[in-house]
Write the structure tokens for this entry.
Amino acid sequence: MAHFLARILGVSARRYVAGVPRTKIHPVFCMNCNITLSSVGSEKSPPIVKLEGKTKKRPRVLSSSSEDDAENVPEKKKQSPKKKKETPKDSPKKQEKTPEKKPEVKEEVPSPETNTKEKESPKKVFTMFQKNSKEGESKNGNEYDPGKKKYHPIEDAIWKQNEKVPYLALSRTFQLIEETSGRLKMIDILSNYFRSVIVLSPDELLPSIFLCLNQLAPAHEGLELGIAETTLMKAIAQSTGRSMSQLKSDIQSIGDIGIVAEKSRSNQRMMFTPAALNVTGVFQKLQEIARMTGNQAMAKKVDKIQSMFVACKHSEARFLIRSLAGKLRIGLAEQSVLQALAQACTDTPPNQGYPPKILSNLKKLGEAGFKAKVDENALLVKTAYCECPDYGQIVPVLLSNGPLALPEKCKMLPGTPVKPMLAQPTKDIQDVFQRFDNIDFTCEWKYDGERAQIHIKDDGTVSIFSRNQENNTTKYPDIIARIDSVKGDQVKSCILDCEAVAWDVEKQQIMPFQILSTRKRKDASEAEIKIQVCVFMFDLLYFNGQPLVKEPFFERRRLLRENFIQVEGTWKFATSLDTNDINDLQNFLDESVKGNCEGLMVKSLKQDATYEIAKRSRNWLKLKKDYLSGVGDSLDLVVIGGYRGKGKRTGTYGGFLLACYDAENEEYQSICKIGTGFSDEALQQHTEFLSQHIIPNPRSYYRFDSSHQPDEWFDAVQVWEVKCADLSLSPVHRAAMGLVDPNKGISLRFPRYIRIRDDKKVEEATSAQQVVDMYSNQDQIKNQKNTSRSVEDDFY
Ligand SMILES: Nc1ncnc2c1ncn2[C@@H]1O[C@H](COP(=O)(O)OP(=O)(O)OP(=O)(O)O)[C@@H](O)[C@H]1O
Ligand SMILES: [Mg+2]
Ligand SMILES: [Mg+2]
């Protein structure tokens, strides 16, 4: 039993049985973390390893995880024709992926307690690192040298109960994740780290999660890093004695400041050894750096960075510098972090004390049952995160009560933004009738402004959040000032879903989105405001202490209309029409266009009419005038490269390389070159902005064909909305490669620039899957399913 308990924890069984609650958990360094050992085995009976349900004998000497990768990489990944076609020549990720010398790790001699019951256990057991393991050898210069005893990367990353988590433990986790391509494996690695933290130092779970996401606080607090590369170079130069030009040329050739920082560190000999970094300490210092303002701020930032940098060991420098630069670049999506968290809480239920009480039912679950339990918990964690996107509220509940308590304790609450419901595109009125056959629906004008989620708390505080949970409260003092006069007497607290639209006071009409975007983005004073805004309310998500998201829209709309007052030109309900007559709908669409709207939003009223947080739902359809009988919608793409202009465009970029975002593989895939739709001012503006984001080499996570090599590569920092005539298969572009055709991607024909989408983060750009959906929904593709047309993109 004790042995089993120890295994659940990933603790050395022998040490535990010896009666000393030694808690040296090897956080991530369980190289075989993808292996489910059902028994540690003994001299006579070698350990049995279950791989994806299969059982096979495992040799005595275990080797590194790379050996297991082939078998454990999720099927989809292994066979996916979407396999990365090419990686840029000097891609740091690729360089790092050269197979590591496989360390030999000997299995611990098993405890006599091993019994048959335990063999059925679904739990994962992690082979402990032995002291003589060479696993910590780095390809980046920090070789572990047992003779010289420089330091021991593994020992340094181990910690005991209630000790601070060494930052090295987290860096090693990042390093392993970076070297892994399978999503499930990444989740396993991260979940193992979380398990160790849960058991040993639960207070550090929250900073660990934030560091994994490279966030310093929830989005609505607006605390961001993103220190300029030159500032980071200065800090590295000052702490290592290397010159700026040496660093510059290294960055040019390696393409990643993190690796350059790590290499530079390893050349440095220290007079004395600074105290080791720990997770909380690093997190707090990053927060302090982000909060520094004023004229001395830059120098103070460099000082603080240096003080951490000189204490870095092994791969710590790489990830610290990348965190500071604003991108961790290990390919870890937020959904994977949430999944890993749920898995860790299932594997190692929090708040069990130390040693944790073994949940006997966990033992009985079996492999499939365990997986189902993980999925159940993942749903709870992910749902809680949608309703309350604030780890500061979720993590304490997980730690003290577990995932089951989340629905009760992490509810939607005014003051914390909710992830908004999104709509599916349609390109023809027939689509609407097909979808809502025999279902009551309503049509609303689709306003072209900025989504505004307006929260009123019990104490009267009002906040306004954007579609990606950023706090826009100080952008709209005019909206805040109106609240008292437009809310009914009964309203105590609420969350309204609205669109804020620029309003022409003289002509009493809606103005285009471009006008709205000229408003100051932060700290606007009412006196300065030149562009008036009219708020169009379309939903009520929370009312007087009760979430309404499970109520049908019909009911939510009734409450909305009963409790708010309309004021012409400032505060209105979205114009709507409940109809099931095709002619009425067509007329209403025409009216919306005359009213300067983009088209209609069509929403189910009673059946399937809940508010689906964070979901692009089929219960909301968008019908945009510009895309009728075309591709249905515009795309929001990331600009990753620029081509210098010729002729009239000399001095600015004349064209750009755009990419969609593939969240599954966390990569940007080229989708088109674009050269039309830009005014001279827009080109000037883009050239100025993008020249601050030039990178010497493409990121390792950019997918493109060498024939599209731009004159300059850019960091993925900006999203542009783009229209096109249609989408076609392309032998050269990489968007959605493997999803429709094994060797072809999808590209846009006649792409045309519309505008910058400042309200979307690059990870919120149109996804590879959305590109596939748009491609497949085109009439010609629907009609000739088997005919694949290959067309090069149109450019110049
Ligand atoms: N009556 C309305 N009901 C719901 N949303 C509306 C309405 N009028 C305008 N909108 C806006 O329309 C948006 C949805 O359509 P749009 O194509 O503009 O989305 P988007 O922001 O480009 O995002 P995506 O293309 O990812 O869906 C909503 O997020 C909201 O801001
Ligand atoms: Mg919009
Ligand atoms: Mg859009």
About this structure: The chain has four domains: 148-214+332-411, 229-325, 422-624, 634-783.
